[in-house]
Amino acid sequence: MGTQLPLALTVGGMTFLLGVIWGGPFVEILRRLKIGKQIRIELQDSHGHKVGTPTMGGIMIIVPTVIIVLALSLARIVQDGQGASVFLPLAVLIGFSLLGLIDDWEGIQTSRGIHGEGLSGRIKFLAQLVLAGAAAVMLSLYQGGFALANQILIPLIPVSIPLSPVIFIPMTMFIIVGMSNAVNLTDGMDGLAGIICASAFAAYGVIAFLQGQIFVVQLCFILVGACFAFLWFNAHPAQLFMGDAGSLPLGATLGIVAVMTGQWALLPIVAIVPVMETVSVMIQVASAKLTRRYLGQDIRPFRRTPLHHHFELVGWSETQVVQRFWLVGILSAMIGVALALI
């Protein structure tokens, strides 16, 4: 196992280099095909200049990750029969990526006036539940390679609590779907979602290494390299946007990796930025509905949600929001790793 972490880090670095090399032509292809981003009406004042920027950039993260992880895993399976444990998070990555691609494409078609209103939120949520449910059932039934799944490791207390399938399956579904949508909400500024996801995957890569789950380690650091390659083109001012093709699968994969390590209780700390983005939306919606109903007026605690837009309206520049959120994200990821060590 001593050589496995250097291998994972090296492959992550190679993934970054390959992504940077083929990223330029990929961005040009999207531009020529007019696969452009559409901006919500309420954001036209501050983000209107981004209209038409190529989207579906998640392809740049997912495709090299799948190819490299499959190559490494199949090589180990042929060699010594190990490596199959990574296929489940890889299936989640692919499944949610396909869902995101469909959602992105429907949005682009709608903006072109071709048909309909795009993929509805209800249909997307139901599809997420189906994908997450299938992953949760497989994780619950298959014990080989998932020794730490089906239980919760309590931070600061050296004890693990086994979970019955009745609790484990819906809990896993909630984590996968919740984190998928949380990262999707975070993806609203140049570089924000990519850098937050890279920090979180690095943290869980270290946690998985300490547990001896080397194939999960490889997946995490390959995703870190792929996210960094994407950030090369997504840094402000962005040449490429992630889209649902990237945000949905990254969040879902982060969720299932957390469950596979048994350290999913640390997820709100490691991924504190996506969690707070989601909480801000929930508070905003609940406050508006309750105050409108009982006070007769619409009271909202934030100027706009998700949370990064609130700070933008407060006066922070986009670059300041992203850098400060990343500082919070990387520090919280470090705290998460520290708690996993105790």
TrEMBL record:
Predominant localisation class: membrane
GO BP term, pick one: cell wall organization
InterPro entries (UniProt xref): Glycosyl_transferase_4 (IPR000715), PNAcMuramoyl-5peptid_Trfase (IPR003524), PNAcMuramoyl-5peptid_Trfase_CS (IPR018480)
Entry keyword annotation includes Electron transport: no
Pathway per the UniProt entry: Cell wall biogenesis; peptidoglycan biosynthesis
Transmembrane segments: 6-30, 51-78, 84-102, 123-142, 154-179, 191-210, 216-235, 247-273, 321-341
Keyword set includes Cell wall biogenesis/degradation: yes
Catalytic activity annotation: UDP-N-acetyl-alpha-D-muramoyl-L-alanyl-gamma-D-glutamyl-meso-2,6-diaminopimeloyl-D-alanyl-D-alanine + di-trans,octa-cis-undecaprenyl phosphate = di-trans,octa-cis-undecaprenyl diphospho-N-acetyl-alpha-D-muramoyl-L-alanyl-D-glutamyl-meso-2,6-diaminopimeloyl-D-alanyl-D-alanine + UMP
Gene Ontology molecular function, alphabetical: metal ion binding; phospho-N-acetylmuramoyl-pentapeptide-transferase activity
Location(s), subcellular: Cell membrane; Membrane
CDD domains: GT_MraY
EC id: 2.7.8.13
One Pfam assignment: Glycos_transf_4
Entry keyword set: Cell cycle, Cell division, Cell membrane, Cell shape, Cell wall biogenesis/degradation, Magnesium, Membrane, Metal-binding, Peptidoglycan synthesis, Transferase, Transmembrane, Transmembrane helix
Record's GO cellular component terms: plasma membrane
Recorded family membership: Belongs to the glycosyltransferase 4 family. MraY subfamily.
Protein name as it appears in the record: Phospho-N-acetylmuramoyl-pentapeptide-transferase
Gene this protein is translated from: mraY
